[in-house]
Structures are given as structure tokens and as C-alpha cells.
Amino acid sequence: LLCPCLIYGAYVFLPFDAPLLPTVSARLVYTLRCATFATFPVVLGMIISGISRLCSSALEPFGELQREVEIHRTYVSQSIQLFILYFFNMAVLATYLPQELLKLIPLLTGLFAISRLIFWLSYAISRSFRVFGFSMTFLPLLAMLVWNLYGMFVLEPENLLS
Questions:
Q1: CA–CA distance from 23 to each of 20, 85, 105, 110 (Å)?
Q2: Within a domain: residue 2?
Q3: Quick one: CA dihedral 53, 55, 60, 63, positive or negative?
Q4: Is residue 13 part of a domain?
Q5: What is the pLDDT of residue 60?
Q6: How far is CA 106 from CA 64, 110, 115, 128, in A?
Q7: Any stretches that span the bilayer, and where are they (predicted)?
Q8: Is the pTM of this model over 0.70?
Q9: Is residue 10 part of a domain?
């Protein structure tokens, strides 16, 4: 329930609009540029993971990982997987959205980045709290997937592969 409220509140109250993007290629470039900001939590996780691996008291580099190192490594691998799914769904979403709704692309990107950081923090505190951050990432992804499938098969079935 929080994700739709956050997106709606940001859509209504943040004072910016998407630029005029009449072609599919312009929309894809816009999505690609927005997605660059979503890589920030992933890159930050890679840096912290490397530092925690270097500072680890493990004498064997290929031995069993400590909990602190394992948290960051798991976060990075899950974030990369979710980012790939998120990016492809956002790219397809950008081709189906009308011009006045293209403001959702940077908002969804910001939600992804914030959600991953919340997941990381809650995962480090306790593994039982991580469901909140994960659901804030996964449920918008699921909603985008449903909308994309609806757009492909119901709204424009004649342009399915073109």
C-alpha cells in the first residue's frame, strides 16, 4: 500500500515534468538515463562489499564468509538481478505510456534506489525485517510487468513484435 501512495504523492507534488518525447527511441534514451541513477545503490554495495572483504578477519580468502561480508555480497547479487528486471520493464513501460505519464519513469527509478537502500539497511539489522525493502522493490516491478503484458496483448496486439 505504501508504494502506490509514494508514487502518487511524488507524481502530484514534485514540480517537474518529463520532456517531450515523441519517438520510441527518445523514450528509451530517457529511460536509460534515468536508470543510471538506479545503479547508485548497486555500485555503493559493491564498494562496501569490497571494503568489508578486505577488512575481514578471515585468513583464507576462499574460506567461509563472515556474516558482514555475506550480507553485502547477497545484497549486491540480488540488486543486480532486480535492476536488470526493473530496467527492462521500465524500457518497455516507456514505450506504452502516454506523454503525460512519462514522469513515472524517474519516479520509479527513485523508488527502486530508495527501496534497495532500505532493504540493505533492514537486512543488515535483522534478516526478518528485509521483507519491507524487498516488497518495495518487487511489487512495483510486478505492477510494471502486468501493465507491460496488458499493453502488449490487449492494447496493441497487432504491434506485439514490431
A1: 9, 23, 15, 24
A2: no
A3: negative
A4: no
A5: 58
A6: 40, 6, 14, 30
A7: 37-59, 79-97, 104-125, 131-155
A8: yes
A9: no
Local structure of residue 18 (DSSP, 8 states): P
Q: Specify the pLDDT at position 59.
A: 52
| Residue 123 and residue 130 in contact, taking contact as beta carbons nearer than 8 Å | yes
Count the alpha carbons within 13 Å of 83 in the hemisphere toward its beta carbon.
22
Res. 63 pLDDT band, cuts 50 70 90: low
How many residues can be counted in the chain? 162
More confident residue, 60 or 107: 107
Determine the average pLDDT of the residues in 80-94.
93
The CATH number linked to 38 is 1.20.120.550
Per-residue burial over 110-136, b if 16 or more Cβ lie within 10 Å, else e, is bbbbbbbbbbbebbbeeeeebeebbeb
CA 147/CA 89 separation, integer angstroms: 9
Q: How far is residue 126's CA from residue 39's CA, in Å, rounded to a whole number?
A: 24
Domain that holds residue 79: 22-160
Residue 66 lies in a domain: yes
Domain count for the chain: 1
pLDDT at 162: 64
